[in-house]
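Page header: ASSEMBLY MODEL / two components / 565 residues total.
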Amino acid sequence: MRVIVAVKRVVDYNVKVRVRSDGGGVDIANVKMSMNPFDEIAVEEAVRLKEAGVAAEVVVVSAGVAQCQETLRTALAMGADRAILIETNEELQPLAVAKLLNAIVDKEQPQLIIFGKQAIDDDSNQTGQMMAALASLPQATFASRLQIADGRAIVSREIDGGAETLSLALPAVVTTDLRLNEPRYVTLPNLMKAKKKPMETVRPEDLAVDVRPRLTTLRLAEPPKRCAGVIVPDVKTLVEKLKSEAKVL
Amino acid sequence: MSILVVGEHDNATIKGGTLNAVTAAAVISLFTGGETHLLIAGHNAQSVAEAGTKIAGVSKVLLADAPHLAEGLAENVEATVLSIANGYSHIVLPATAYGKSIAPRIAARLDVAQMSDIIAVESADTFVRPVYAGNVIATVRSGDSTKVVTVRTTGFDAAATDGGSASIEKIAAAPDAGVSQFLNRQVTKLDRPELTSADVVVSGGRGLGSAENYTRILEPLADKLGGALGASRAAVDAGFVPNDYQVGQTGKIVAPELYIAVGISGAIQHLAGMKDSKVIVAVNKDAEAPIFSVADYGVVDDLFVAVPEWVDLLSQ
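Prediction written out in full:
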């Protein structure tokens, strides 16, 4: 079976972003960009399915600017077979990405589509679910365990206060949570090999998808700063201060 | 037009996040003048619907009762919401695992954008939400006809569970989508308050070193303070505790009266989940740890000494 994995290029998780002084955007010039961490988990899971002989082909897809090629190369170096870049300079919002992915899924007819549960830039947590709904497919969000058997996906998922297990008819959409796996490191030889793997570029027009943004960002601001308090010499002083000063004990 | 809140419940009781979503709906209605309706999609959920009628601010409870709605499967709840979505200007869900799974499906099928995790309402079409792990606060306007939002529960007070006098209207459940099946659920049995609603949260990080240490050091303190237990992503990754303990950008967002960070360095992604706490205490032996930059009170000491000492003091 074929597995499609959606990957997003985001500001690296170690970077503390700053709002541009004009409030019109986030300063991402000269900032390190990486694959969204949850998408790495998604790629890893797909590659493991291939290594286990469950998946025959892993196709990675990204949407965005030309530099997303680097993100796709990383995914290829992790073990994906080929890549598709949906290239555009337009600001892409989750609904647009879901429609683009849906168009790719329509063409490629995968049995499984894996997304990271959320991107760490816009923190939306929407695209996988939206794509599933557009394609009328079942979904399991926040997966911590995934098994494929008898044409179904058995997925354990993280829920508030525990876990639950669902059985989905394939094709299905799964979004990844932290504990699903630990992504492998990309080695230099694999990165070299990845350069030879196929990468196709399409445009939203080719897929007949209108990607114009629906949401307008009016303002971006930094949250009110929390000031550092005091270092107390010992626990005894701490307890006294929590009682008399903070009044929380 | 009215506002629809999709209620989260377990067929017996309404989950807390629903009450915060009702308050968000009440704020939206200040701008639209619309009524707030609460949908209970479940099975044998009459008692939940009855409890819903008493929530302050709810004018009507819609009850869709069918076996295939029993477990809150996203595909089936989505279909039932879509069957009534026409009459609503706003569809509001709590930003919990439940709401996060269902809301985007509804938005996509309505061909509208969704605004996730809103923390404030500026007008009928403009909402405030954190992005970049809460390091940036965005004010966003939707040009779509229907606004689908999920509500960060720490951003709005819980609506009162009494004082309301709504009516119940039974509606038909949409047919079973038939593509997903619920197998089982393991709910962690907790004899302490729930993490997102606790007044005190005791959280542990990598500094604890092991699952045994996490339990041995933190549980007595949480017991003494009547608090919930939480953890940093590092502690979850290291396998000290299950994922549902995780506080942070990718875990739970908490804002208790007192948040105690033990052996937590204070990565951006952790701070995103707890920096709205009223009072923050950090215990860490590294005086340079970033957690001290947000802590009201810091103790630079070995946690294996400081925390037991704290428990002793509370026992006296």
